[in-house]
Amino acid sequence: MSPTWIDIDDEALRETIRFSGARSEDEAVNLALRVYAARHRSRAETMHERNRAEAAAKRRAPED
């Protein structure tokens, strides 16, 4: 990992530590980033699958 200096919302960090059980601020921030990325990756994958299913359904539908 590379060190990065950023300003972090203190209350958000405290809540992340409290809810996650992280043992350090670094752990809490990295966990929050991983959770955020996973949530959005999952959402993007779901949308991609939905679009594929809709396109396949259109290909199978008889023309009017």
Descriptive report:
- There is one protein chain.
- By secondary structure, the protein is mainly alpha-helical.
- The protein has one domain (10-60).
- It has two helices and no strands.
- Helix 1 packs across helix 2 (25-60).
- The mean pLDDT is 89.
- It comes from Nocardiopsis alba (strain ATCC BAA-2165 / BE74).
Entry keywords:
mainly alpha; single chain; 64 residues; 2 helices; 0% strand; 73% helix
Count the domains: 1
The share of residues in helices is over 70%
**Strand tally, please?**
0
Question: β content, as a range?
Answer: under 5%
Shape: elongated
Low-confidence segments, ≥5 residues, pLDDT <50? Answer: none
Going by helix content, strand content and strand pairing, the class is mainly alpha
Number of helices: 2
**Helix-strand string:** HH
Q: What oligomeric state best describes the polypeptide chains here? A: single chain
Largest sheet: none
What is the rounded distance between the termini? 57 Å
* Rg of Cα set: 20 Å
Let me know the average pLDDT: 89
Region (Disordered): 42-64
Biased composition (Basic and acidic residues): 43-64
InterPro entries: VapB_antitoxin
Organism: Nocardiopsis alba (strain ATCC BAA-2165 / BE74)
